[in-house]
Design goal:
heterodimer, A: alpha/beta, Arc Repressor Mutant, subunit A, 9-stranded mixed beta sheet, 3-stranded antiparallel beta sheet, 16 helices, about 15% strand, B: alpha/beta, Ribosomal Protein S5, domain 2, Helicase, Ruva Protein, domain 3, 4-stranded mixed beta sheet, 18 strands, about 40% helix, elongated
Chain lengths: ~375, ~500
């Protein structure tokens, strides 16, 4: 481990200047490994044409033992590993893209990159409906063994990662800063959950690198690059999500767009994309079908239908469960259909919520957690 | 020189005031001393006219009137009657019946120019104080008579005109004594105006209201406009246990000194329901003004304070609610006056889920951004929220349900269950100074509200899966205690915990 870590230190050093990937690739091609690049710089025999002046300055500033020590501390403390484009196990998916990242830092399990992954993106300040849709679709894809890749930002990103974890698959987050920093900080718990559940965190930025605005659209290319296709949940016309779409198209990936409410400004971008020919979908099944994965033996097939069924133990729970089967209902309607008194219904709802069978929605509404119907049931039905 | 006896009000308490009238030959005039305020000073003109219109002469002398004790500020027009009587006696316009001890009869009332006696604010505390000072007879305005009629051991003599008083004192007429009205008979006369039976649907919210009433818990309702939050809150006084005599006295006193009692009303039997508008100032809520008058929190004493659109109230007004919510009293201090008023009330708050009001509605789409919603919810501070045990959502009732659903349970039936639960609590907390579950502190929650093993397991599972906060934990236990009391069981079981968790909805969905 110790020798490995010391190699990662030179990775960190070379990444610390945030040079364009093409420049780093050139250096690696020239010298072979990051350590050899370091040695060349130390001995003064380095090739410096093509390196931006500011980057060169940072590299030279960081050429000190103290810097290496502090970098090593960060790497060890946060259990951050790294690999470069010259390593033999560098994922081939990334090699197919423009400007492949030359050095990547990671936490967690690299095996995640080998599963079937889909990218899921959308706005940070997302609508309630968008977050719900993201969670549900991610969960259902995850149940079929599909991993979700996103950017660990707020809103849709958070909902996507969470959905994937809940569905049992491993999720990948590509961040826009050093892996020792959690940004936004309220996602600390999410970061831990991703790792606890065998997921992977990736970043092309060296530990200690701050979250700077331009990092984010740039890292989006890695999100789409690692995925088989891109799923857009919620996008405004001008947004980071649109840069992801651009990357996906450049990389020749399919773009799935969730329709959303046509009157809502949150989904303006979605409808623009759909008009321009993006693939329309509403459920996880749609995506599996279009990806040709429905009959693929690699995809773990699970019994479709509601898994909550097995957890029902009492007749009251059964009554609420059947009342909710057609779709979302308010408290009063559940009371009417199940015939339970308000007091009994209250406690039954709690039990079902704890078991994860139903979900409470704003406005005293409830629905089965795995129902794909987003629609209100017709009260007169 | 003549003396009459009357009473003034300071805070919620009455105190005796001796009216001393001294006439001397000189330039005709009438001077009032003893710290009178403007309304007392104007008394001079009312008294003048009322005496003449009662068939007596206003003496052409220089008259000095002293209101003793001279160091207390005197307010209000209630001194008119004793001043008029004092003036008449001092100038021998009235020769009093020797059988009547004029100086020992307390009298108060405002005079109109034609001599009629008008009702005044604060009659109840004055009569109570009179009784405490050993006074046997009180002459007061007819329209205040019922207010004082529940006080035992004192003769209430209601009058409508100064002439009646004159005739009585001269021995040529009598005043019909007010009959004692028992508190119980008052209770039977009226009942709560809105009845729960009038609310269609809303079974969940009604159940929550019942739990709130049974444990004295504060409650906040979130719901779209028109979902019936105000109507629900208005039903609360009708299902709370009726006021006890002591409570009724406390509450009526405060209303009496604020002049909020309608004429001819007796002691308040129904619990008060105060619903200040959201632009209310701190002083109007808590009490204040030059003379440190009681505010809405005191008027709601032993009753319900309903704050609709609570995020629209000013931050300072909401923060000021914390003392009365915690201590049940407010201290109002002003430069010229200080007072302590009781203010032990149930707080019922209502709000929309977001600025546009339709977040989560099944009938209309919300147009607010998450940031707007967050800002809106953040206007209610954590410490205030900490004092609210029940948080519920109220959804609008669909039209077809309004037309079709079966008649609902009347308030009286709910009130019965509530009273039974309150009895259990009074029994349990006897000797601790507490009387309902809402008042328990954290240590007492441990002592009285420990659920069975299954209940603890459930609660811990809920904390993990439903994103409940630690502050919610104590509240769930308290509310579960009340639900178990409604069930007449001593043991808090998992069903009680499960139901109580439903009343922390906002922790789960809004204040995550």
């Amino acid at each position: 481990m110790a020798t490995e870590t010391s190699a990662f230190v030179y990775h960190a050093w070379l990444a610390s200047a945030a040079l364009p990937p093409g420049v780093i690739n050139g250096l690696l091609k020239e010298y072979g490994t990051t350590e050899k690049v370091w040695n060349a710089f130390i001995s003064g025999h380095n090739k410096s044409e093509g390196i931006p002046a500011a980057g060169l300055k940072t590299l030279k500033q960081n050429m000190a033992d103290e810097w290496l020590e502090s970098a090593e501390r960060l790497l060890l403390q946060h259990q951050i590993g790294a690999f470069t484009i010259t390593d033999s196990d560098y994922p081939s998916l990334l090699l197919q893209m423009e400007e492949p990242p030359s050095i990547l830092f990671y936490q967690g399990d690299l095996q995640c990159m080998r599963q079937n992954n889909l990218a899921m993106v959308g706005s940070r300040a997302a609508s309630y409906d968008g977050q719900k849709a993201a969670g549900k679709i991610a969960r259902n894809l995850s149940r079929k063994g599909i991993g979700i890749i996103s950017g660990m930002a707020g809103g849709i990103d958070t909902a996507s990662h969470t959905g994937c974890i809940e569905g049992g698959s491993r999720t990948i987050a590509v961040t826009g800063c050093g892996l020792d920093i959690v940004y936004p900080s309220e996602n600390l718990r999410l970061r831990d959950r991703i790792l606890e559940n065998g997921g992977l965190l990736l970043s092309e930025y060296a530990p200690g690198e701050k979250p700077v605005g331009w990092h984010f659209p740039f890292r989006n290319r890695i999100i789409t690059g690692l995925s088989k296709a891109l799923i857009v949940i919620e996008a405004k016309i001008r947004s980071g999500t649109m840069t992801s779409v651009q990357h996906a198209l450049n990389q020749g990936k399919e773009v799935f767009v969730y329709p959303g409410d046509p009157t809502s400004r949150y989904f303006e971008g979605n409808h623009r994309l759909l008009r321009e020919g993006a693939v329309y979908f509403t459920t996880a099944e749609d995506i599996l079908e279009d990806m040709g994965w429905l009959d693929n033996p690699e995809i773990i097939r699970q019994n479709s239908g509601c898994s909550g069924r097995t957890q029902i133990t009492t007749s009251e729970e059964e009554a609420v469960f059947s009342a909710l089967k057609p779709g979302r209902l308010g408290f009063e309607q559940i009371a009417e259909r199940s015939g339970l008194s308000p007091a009994v219904l209250m406690s039954t709802l709690t039990m079902l919520q704890i078991k994860g069978v139903i979900e409470a929605l704003p406005g005293k509404q409830y629905e089965l957690k795995d129902s794909d119907s987003q629609h209100y049931s017709d009260p007169e039905e | 020189m003549a003396k009459t006896l009357t009473f003034g009000v300071s805070g919620v308490n009455g105190y005796p005031v001796h009216v001393e009238v001294f006439g001397i030959n000189g330039i005709p005039g009438l001077e009032i001393i003893g710290l009178p305020d403007a309304s007392v000073r104007e008394s001079r003109d009312r008294v003048n006219a009322a005496i003449i219109n009662s068939g007596k002469q206003m003496p052409a002398r220089r008259i000095t009137i002293n209101l003793a004790p001279a160091d207390m500020k005197k307010e209000g027009p209630s001194f008119d009657l004793p001043i008029a009587v004092g003036v008449l006696i001092a100038n021998r316009e009235i020769i009093t019946d020797p059988a009547i001890e004029t100086e020992k009869i307390a009298m108060f009332g405002e005079l109109s120019l034609d001599g009629h006696v008008q009702p005044i604010a604060g009659a109840l505390p004055m009569v109570i104080s009179a009784k405490e000072n050993g006074v046997r007879d009180v002459i007061l305005p007819e329209k205040n008579a019922r207010e004082a009629a529940c006080i035992e051991g004192i003769n209430i003599m209601p009058v409508s005109h100064l002439r009646q008083v004159i005739a009585f004192l001269e021995g040529s007429g009598t005043i019909k004594k007010q009959e004692q009205i028992s508190f119980d008979s008052l209770k039977n006369e009226i009942f709560a105006s809105p009845d729960m039976a009038q609310i269609k649907g809303q079974g969940g919210a009604k159940r929550a209201l019942e739990v709130a009433a049974a444990g004295g818990h504060n409650m906040i309702m979130i719901g779209v406009p028109g979902s019936g939050k105000t109507m629900l809150a208005r039903c609360l006084p009708g299902i709370l246990p009726p006021l006890s005599f002591e409570e009724a006295l406390e509450t009526t006193r405060i209303h009496s000194i604020s002049g909020k009692l309608p004429p001819n009303s007796g002691l308040m039997v129904l619990r008060p329901f105060c619903a200040p508008h959201h632009n209310a100032s701190v002083a109007s809520l808590i009490g204040g003004g030059q003379d440190a008058k009681p505010g809405e929190v005191s008027l709601a004493h032993n009753g319900v304070l309903f704050l609709d659109e609570i995020p629209e109230f000013s931050r300072s007004a909401l923060e000021a609610l914390r003392q009365p919510l915690e201590d049940g009293v407010v201290n109002v201090a002003r430069v010229k006056k200080q007072a302590q008023y009781q203010s032990s009330f149930m707080l019922i708050a209502a709000m929309n889920p977001c600025p546009c009001g339709f977040y989560g509605s099944s009938r209309k789409v919300c147009r607010c951004t998450p940031q707007e919603i967050r800002r809106y919810l953040d206007r209610i501070s954590g410490p205030l929220l900490d004092r609210i045990d029940l948080q519920i959502e109220v959804d609008a009732v669909p039209v077809q349900e309004i037309n079709t659903s079966a008649p609902a349970e009347p308030s009286a039936a709910v009130a019965k269950r509530v009273s039974a639960a309150r009895m259990i609590q009074q029994e349990r907390y006897r000797g601790t100074g507490k009387h309902c579950n809402a008042q328990l502190n954290n240590d007492e929650v441990k002592l009285y509200c420990t659920p069975d093993a299954e209940g603890i397991r459930l609660l811990n599972a809920a904390m993990e899966t439903m994103h409940l906060s630690m502050r919610g934990y104590q509240r769930i236990l308290k509310v579960a205690r009340t639900i178990a009391d409604l069930d007449h069981t001593d043991l808090i079981g998992s069903v009680h915990i499960a139901e109580a968790i439903q009343y922390r909805e906002l922790d789960q969905k809004y204040w995550r």
